[in-house]
Amino acid sequence: MKRLFSFNFIASLCVASALLFSGCAKDKNGERIIFSIEDDIALGNQVAAQTDSIYQDKLLLPTDSRQNVKDAYAQINGIVQKILSSDKISYRQEFNYNVKIIKDDNTLNAFATPGGHIYVFTGLIKKLDNEDQLAGVLGHEIAHADRRHTSKALEREYGLSVLLSILLGENQNQLVQIGAGLATLKFGRDAETEADSYSVEYLGDTHYTCDGAAEFFKKMQQEEQAGKPPVFLSTHPGDEQRIKAITDKATADNCIKPVAPASETNYQTLIRNLTF
User: Which stretches make up the Peptidase M48 domain (predicted)?
Assistant: First the structure.
């Protein structure tokens, strides 16, 4: 027992030292953060595995044998790849951005782990009208991962020592709690504003209109006004000022485009593929 304690203590010191030294330099976003990119990826992989386990009864996987599910993933991954073509995404090479679909038509939500694992509920997908709006949501979640908002929020919520212990393969009970709470993890106003802004920039490099996130937030507001506040709004407030800021930036960037008919037609196919 004493030897095991000593090993764990030394290992913790080694990891902590590495994290502290890596935090002395700025990351690609120009910010100082204790966690290295490798730590983001390792933590994200563990959290994603735990999230998969939590939602295992509802998770639709890319390896599903059903053709409609495969087609749905092909379409969503196609949207993601278009977004990832933007050179404004700092860690598009390092992070293995991927989307997983959770079959729950009653939940309007999406969230991201560190390192770029993104989860989208079928309820949110079915609420939208076209690919442009979904691209706005995905761009927003990619920004949370790329700007490392999720890592910072987890450190603020649970503390550095807890995240260190998880990276060391310990504290599995806490990992379960993090996986269960990730869908409702709250970000600060600055992080939300930044994610909105980068979503506009990412989509500006695609054929999608880059104010898709604004249209999405308008839909979320309608749900809230109807007395059915979505989970998404508990973590991503969608007030009028925020919608205006997205639209104003898209206008200033001259990247508001007409929604192509194919965007709506293809989207109806996506919804049919996710209707069981």
Answer: 74-248
